[in-house]
Write a structure and sequence with these properties.
single chain, Acyl_CoA_acyltransferase, N-acetyltransferase domain-containing protein, globular, 3 strands, alpha+beta
């Protein structure tokens, strides 16, 4: 995300839109964040997402986060 949008609720709005779209069919969702994206790792932890696994793909390390859709479907 571009720095001028940091702290403006954009991440929460995007997660809420995804949660509303999926909540009728699923209870939980997963997403993957590259370790080098420190800001994103911090944001997802701040939202209370659970770190479930770590994996490497094409020499890049990722964390798999899971979260309850009900936590964001507002």
């Amino acid at each position: 995300m571009a720095p001028e949008f940091h702290g403006r609720g954009v991440s929460r709005a995007l997660l809420s839109a995804v949660a509303r779209g999926l909540s009728g069919r699923y209870r939980y969702a997963a997403l993957f964040v590259e370790h080098s994206n420190h800001r994103s790792m911090t944001v997802h932890r701040h939202f209370g997402m659970r770190e479930q696994a770590e994996f490497t793909f094409q020499d890049r390390t990722y964390t798999a986060f899971t979260f309850s859709l009900s936590a964001f479907a507002q």
